[in-house]
Amino acid sequence: DGVRFDVITLFPAIFDGYLTQSLLEKAIKKGLVDIQRHDMRDWAGKAPHRKVDDRPFGGGPGMLLQVDVTVPCVEDVQKMGPSPGKVIMLTPQGKRFDQQMAEEFALCDRLVLMCGRYEGFDQRVTDILQPTEVSIGDFILNGGEVAAMTIVDSVVRLLPGVLGDENSNIDDSFSSGNRLLEFPQYTRPREYRGHQVPEVLLGGNHQAIAKWRSEQSQLRTQQRRSDLLEKQTDLPASQTDDLG
Ligand code: ADE
Hints:
By secondary structure, the protein is of the alpha/beta class. 33% of the residues lie in helices and 18% in strands.
């Protein structure tokens, strides 16, 4: 019950190094993920030009990905798999990606990721395919490829069997059991340039350690990301206890 990803892009080589990165390579070898790349130019018009983009009607800068290239490309890719899958368009106009969305995507059997370049897609691509439009943040990337990699990366580590127990993700910041930032962590040496490891972590009192960590998480979240504390409605009581 892994996830199959289909990445539709004009620059499939951008993913080369990422796909051979150790965690992902292992997950692919174990059959937990399958990542197929598709070069949108294979759906372009006739040689020698093989155009995929054109200037916007009404004027303005940049080039748009053409509807008569993009739509057949996505439809053909959808037919290649065991199921049509969920179509996701990476765009700064999309819904903001977060850990909750990653958890939802991790339950899908197939995700088709459409990466834009230039000024984006002709609006009719969206009207016809009705993809889920997703943005990874309020900034502009040169294309959707890095955004697609971000989604693959965060979804893959949620799949059962991908991370070992030693790297368990259930306590991660923003996971459904925890919407607070993580507490600070320390390893050896106990002292470095006069900076000490907090005494409580050295004592072996697990209850005291848990209490200190929970306080640190709440303090950090309050100081750095108070916006996370505002939407607390569905949190377990243990995380809302002493928020003040
Ligand atoms: N393409 C360009 N910028 C993007 C962003 N912030 N998120 C998703 N796709 C994008």
